[in-house]
Amino acid sequence: MISSVSVSLKKALVLLASAVIAVTIIVVALIFLRVFRVPLYQINLFGISYSPVHWMSWIGALYIAFITPALPIVKYKYPRHIPRMQNIHVIGNLVAVLLVSIHFAHQVTRSAINYPALGTGIALYATMILLAATGYALISGMGKKAFKQIHFLHPAFALTFYLVIIIHIIHGI
Hints:
Layout: H1 2-32, E1 43-45, E2 48-50, H2 52-67, H3 70-77, H4 82-108, H5 119-140, H6 142-146, H7 150-172
Antiparallel strand pairs: 1-2
Helix pairs in contact: 1-4, 2-4, 3-4, 4-5, 5-7
């Protein structure tokens, strides 16, 4: 009975993760097609003024940065909380990817006059997408079928994410 419950919960997690990924793809496509845009105005928080799209990326990146290492800590210190933490980790990080994707799509679709220097942003976004893709492959079971190195690649992309985000923030200062 317990294994059938855990299997159905895992299927529900994979289904919800797939839905968040589908929403992300649709929203990004709508931004690229210029059907949907977040209005450009400034929000001042903590004496820092950014557009809502930029604040979305900060929220998403900070969420990923703090929740990602929480799962291994829970695995070793509090193993009975793994299922709940895994749900928070997977769904929360995918929603964070959605927020960062909205920012990235807005950046790359800016007019030529206001086009940003994308250097570290492209590296950061690519790393984040690879991190999410390997995580999805692990949770869905596709990773075991595709290749055995997935258990190495996912944490490797997490470390790369941290290195690139630090460089991206320093580059933006």
